[in-house]
């Protein structure tokens, strides 16, 4: 089984479908925007050196505590990008705990 990597490295989205077999290899501007929002939130959560504690707190609240039925919530964006919000939340929880320990 071959995995094809695409989009932002922070998201690490994988697909077992070869790029030529997908409906479209070119994303829409709307999808690119959703990817950018998710990428920024993940970077704020994991904590680049320049991220303020307020931005990190907003990312934590958006990813872990916002209601999934809210428009443009973390779950909504994951669903639109065909990502599992539960799995991604689990991975981010592990990454956040590992960062605070180290």
Structure notes:
- Strand 1 (4-6) and strand 2 (13-15) form a beta hairpin.
- The protein has one domain.
- A two-stranded antiparallel sheet has the order 1-2.
- The longest helix is centred in the middle third of the chain and has 18 residues, at 29-46.
- It has helices at 29-46, 53-65, 74-80, 85-101, and strands at 4-6, 13-15.
- It has 102 residues and is mainly α.
Question: What attributes does this structure have?
Answer:
mainly alpha, disordered N terminus, 102 residues, two-stranded antiparallel ribbon, 2 strands, single chain
Shape: globular
Order of helices and strands: EEHHHH
Note the total helix count.
4
| Overall structural domain count | 1
Could you describe the largest sheet, including whether it forms a barrel?
2 strands, antiparallel
Helix content: 40-55%
Strand adjacency order, main sheet: 1-2
- Gyration radius, to the nearest Å? 14 Å
Produce a short descriptive summary.
It contains four helices and two strands. It has 102 residues and is mainly alpha-helical.
Q: How are the SSEs placed, and which strands pair?
A:
Elements: E1 4-6, E2 13-15, H1 29-46, H2 53-65, H3 74-80, H4 85-101
Antiparallel strand pairs: 1-2
Helix pairs in contact: 1-2, 1-3
